[in-house]
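Our consortium's second objective concerns turning raw sequence data into structural hypotheses that experimental partners can test. To show how far this objective has progressed, the report includes one record in full. It was chosen at random from the queue rather than selected for favorable results. The single chain below, 206 residues long, was entered without modification.
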Amino acid sequence: MNSFDIARLVLRLSIGITTAIHGYNKLFLGGRIAGTSKWFTSLGVRQATFHAWLVAITEIAAGIALAAGLLTPLASAAVVALMLVAAWTVHRKNGVLLTSGGWEYTFVLAAATTPIAITGPGHMSLDWMVFGAPLFQGLPGLFIWKVVQGPRPGVKAAAGIGLVMRLPLIKILEAFAAPNYSVLHRGRDVVVAHSVGKADRDRGCW
């Protein structure tokens, strides 16, 4: 464990707990599902009651999973998708600043979640303790694109593409690494190791 693990833990806990609280609020506080459904209807969301349940449950589940570091790529993808859809459908028309109901808050949550998906949850996580590495690499984007249904297809697609995938990042590194470097994927870590030739590798010099 190092300072990088602690930094990721702080991010996971703050974003995950905040997201879960939003879901809890939709289910048990204020107007509950009925009030959330009416709000969604006013935004032009079809099947508003279904989506109210879906968003509330997803926020709670994804928030708890992200905070615990469990199935982190999937949890991260869900949080990013939810925040991008909220930024577009709810806050976009109000400008940037939060004081006027703008999209800065949801954008920052999505942006802060993305590095967690790229780097992994760190050693202080259930993924590390139980699985040794995140599961479902490469799949969360497709899953979220199918499950998180917003009123605008462009937003759904943007939320589900490989914004938060670790596997594409590794492929990009492999594609753009200089010829004298080798990109290694060891568990949850990406290592760029200098290689000056096969003879050096055989001698264990890389």
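The partners drew two points from this record. The chain has two domains: 3-164, 171-202. DSSP finds ten helices and two strands in the chain. Both points have been shared with the crystallography group to help prioritize constructs.
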